[in-house]
Amino acid sequence: MAVRQGRYTLTFPSGPVIAGSAAVIRSKGTGPRIKAAIIGRIQDMGIRDANNMGAAMAPAAYRTITDFLHDTNTLPENYDMILTGDLGSVGSKLLCELMKENENIDITPVHADCGTMIYDLEEQDVHAGGSGCGCSGAVVCSYITRRLREGDIGKVLFVGTGALMSPVSTLQGESIPGIAHGVLLTRE
Amino acid sequence: MAVSDSEYGKMAKKISPPSPKGLNIIKAFLIGGIISALGEGLGMIYERAGIGEKGVKALVPITLIVITAVLTALGLFDKIAKHAGAGTIVPITGFANAVVSPAMEFQSEGRILGTGAEMFRIAGPVIVYGSCASVIYGFIYWIFQK
Description:
Chain A is of the alpha/beta class. Chain A has helices at 53-72, 88-103, 114-117, 134-150, 167-171; strands spanning 15-16, 33-38, 81-84, 111-113, 130-131, 155-163, 178-186. Chain B is extended.
């Protein structure tokens, strides 16, 4: 759907990303390595605006990141990067705010978002950033894995985000639930 | 979760950047006005050329539609519409764009089920309700004419 919105007259709050990516995961070999994984839980904080998907997904990312930090008994400082999928600039701010308000944890120094990384927000005029699962795939499978391989960063908690949005339920005035699953990527 | 749903809604609203309403209105007014002036100008040219009133009334919209269709195909219309907003959507240019865009967009889905079926995806409702409204208007007009 995102692709088709490309040529409609009205401007959209984000730039659709059309990207494909694939990763081969093996039990042996050299890094980057998946050290841990977490299955997220659906979160719904009543966001009804289909043009504000970042806000709809941020609580899910918050939940998954918090659960992961609790489960592993770690702090944001223990990671080189906490990377989210396609929250965009608005969703990212909300995620950091939720972490601060609820858990008193500041993730801003290590937080990054694929949606805001894939475009140059100033130059390319994409408003809140890129949207769609292509953001995560393209950024993680190229830029992030390369940086891990080169040893520039060593430990990345990557949390892919998704909005469980159906155009029909949005028209019926239902809220948009979000989901986020995470993997811990390490150099070795 | 400590932040409640309603608190979160407020947070989201605060952080989401609002549209610059004032600027948008001015841009829409100016560009919409330019398009209307262009239409007036075309009308005057056609009249000078000796085309009758009826012919001018048909030719002006046709010219604007052709210009919009070409600009849409070249990808230039989007750039103008991005700034003009309603300024380009409300005049007939918006209608032309609404037909040409999906026609191009759905080309990949075939001539019949793609371009043919989807061409009026946006313009269709305008035609349906426009026709309905004109029937009602015609009926009222007829009553008062009696």
